[in-house]
Amino acid sequence: MFYDLNVPWTPNNPELQRTLAFLAELGYNVVALNHTVVGKLPADLSSPIPTDLRFPTARNLRILRRCTLVLSDPAQNHRLSTLSQRYDLLAIRPTTEKALHQACSLDCDLISLDLTTRFPSHFKHKTLSTALQRGVKFELCYAPGVLATDSSARRNLISNATQLIRATRGRGIIISSEAMKAVGCRGPWDVINLAMVWGLGQERGREAVGTEARSVVVQAELKRRSYRGVVDVIYGGEKPHLSEALHHAEKGKGKGPKQGIENGQKRKVDILDDGTEQESGQAKPMSKREQKRQAKKAKLDAFKKTDDSSETSSAALAPKSSDSLGRKPMAAANG
Question: For the chain, which terminal residue's Cβ has fewer other Cβ atoms within 10 angstroms, N or C?
Answer without folding.
Answer: C
